[in-house]
Structures are given as C-alpha cells and as structure tokens.
Amino acid sequence: MKILHLTRPAAGGMREYVVTLLEALVKRNYQLQLAGPVAQWDQSRLQGVELLPFDVGPSVQWGEFGLAWRLGALFRREGIDLCHAHGYRAGLLARLAGAMAGVRVIVTLHNFLPRGRRWQRSLYWWLERVMGPWPVAYVAVCEAIRHHYARNMGIPPRLIKVIPPGLDWSTRLPAQESKMAVRAGIGLGPSEPFIISLARLIPAKGVQYLLQAASLLSRSLPSLKVVICGDGPFKAILQELAEKLGLASRVIFTGFRADALSLVQAADIFVLPSLSEGLPLSVLEAMALGKPVIATRVGGIPEVIDDGKTGWLVPPGNTGALAAALQRAFSGGAENLLLAQRARQTILRRFSVDETVISWQRLYEGLPVYGEVVPLERS
Question: Of 167, 268, 256, 186, which Cα lies nearest the Cα of 221?
C-alpha cells in the first residue's frame, strides 16, 4: 500500500508524533511519502520515506481549489492509495484532492481549532457541510479533541476514532546521565531543588502563572529554582516578569535545548501550567521518566493524569492552586515515589508506539474503498 502523509507547518509534539509514526510504519514495509513543508523536518529520522515539498499553509488560503487540484494531480502521478493528513487544515485540502483523484483520506486531529478567528471557524463549518458526502476517516489523539470537533464542526462522534499517540520509549528517553553533571551544566548545585517546565514560550502555555506561583513559595521554599526550557515570542516578557517578582536569581531560562529530556530527568518535579492543550507529549515524556507531574486540567491532560494517583491536576490560570500543588509535591516524600512509579507504568503501557501502529494498521487495511462510507466504531 502506498500512503502519502500530508502536513502543514508542524513543530513540537505534532512533528514528533508524525516522525515516530513514519519510522514505525517504514519497518512494516509500507511505501511512504511525506508531503508539505518538508525542509523543516529531520531527514536523518526519515530514512525510507520519500519527501515531497508541497506548499500547505497554516490556514485556508485564496486559491485553495488550485492547491487541491495540484495535490490531486500528485496523488494520480504517484499512484497513491491513501492520504493520511495531519491537522484539520491539511485534512480539508486532502479531502478536496481525494475527491478529485479518487483517493481515500484519513485525517488526524492533533489540536483544537484556532481561537479568535470566527470567520475561519465559519468557513470550516461550511466546508464540512459541503464535503460531508465525501468519505473520510477522522482520528483524534484524545477524547477531548474528539468531543471538540463533534461539538464545533458538527461531525457525528461515531465518525471520529481515538488513537492515542505512541512513542518508542526505547529510543525516546535519554540514557541515565549523572544528575549532578546535568545540574552543574545549568548552574545548579547537587542539592538545590528545582522544577522544570518544557514548553514553547507563548501566553497559552501559562508559564506566567508558574512564575507567580514560585513567587508565593519564596518563604516556604527559599532554595527552590525554576528552569524554563524552550523558546518563543513571549520569552522577553517572562524574563521581565521574573525580574519584577524578585525571581531573577531563582529562574533559569535555558532557551531551546536538544537535550531537554535530560534536564527533565534531573529535575525534582515537572510542571505544565498551560491554558490550552491537546495531548502534550511533554507530559507523557516526564511521566515516562518517572517524574512527579503537575499540570492543568485542560484538553486531554485529565485523560492521562489520574489526579492524586499518577500526578496532580490544577485549574488553568489559578496561581494559588498551582503554588499549593507544588508545596504538596515537595512535602510528599515516599508517596511521590509511588505516584511517579504508577505514572511511568501507565505511560509505558498505554502510549507505546507498537500499540499505536497496530491501531493504524487496522485502520489502513480496513478503510473502505473510495465511494463507500462505513462509520468507525469508537476506540
């Protein structure tokens, strides 16, 4: 079977999801192509995948039908049996092209629809009505995203299957390094407690609330350090906030780090204070590393963390609740170790790349030929 994966510009968790899936599918002898803005992808991990540059923008553009026509011509020229599109935007384009070329289409819904663009949501709703008769299989990465598209796009929930992301934990997690060496590398002493947040620095990641919570803990945890790993347009504002809160000597902004998971491994607690999320891979990775995790009750996070048993959940944007959770975590002692062990076992079992690929193979092989519409059962 020849499968073309279509993506818009992608970064972070979505890109890692796609690359991991392609790596696993290559080993199962699928003929694979990746179309989209492929110059940004790590080609060393895509051996056996043919890369096809194709201009898929982040949002609907003028000349969309011309772009779909070119994609349909690509389907015919390459003899594509199935197109697996990543993201709702790429999915719309793939469905138009699939209808023109008679190619089956699967769309993975990785994230929520963008906020604050009412015209775009209205356009998506209208296009969904127009393309309703054309067969497509929708797959969400978590239940929260499944319900979001059912509610906002009017897609019957039974037509959206849930396949959680799976990672290859044998290669994804860093080797056990000396925690002392890692700490020393970012200027921390061997016994200084530190928490870490790994995120793109934008307002929606909520790092501002983490800084405010750290300020509230200045007296009870005077030696606590906060490591912010990541980069983004909000970085300067967060640095200024740390200064205003008197945290300049206690907060370390590392910028982008290729070895970010080694920093997570050396930390005491991982925190993701996001205001909005789909299913963040950073939470899965921190739990797989056996770290106690505090995260907000948004998106698919509550589907991963059982509050008080495999981590702690707090309301988004609630500085007091976040500070209280941090205080509780640092006083947990042996209980934290048990919690982290349960979390690690849960992640390694539920989010294995082998389990994910089996689900995808079943869907690829069982998807009806073009022209048939068979509702998918909920996973």
Answer: 268
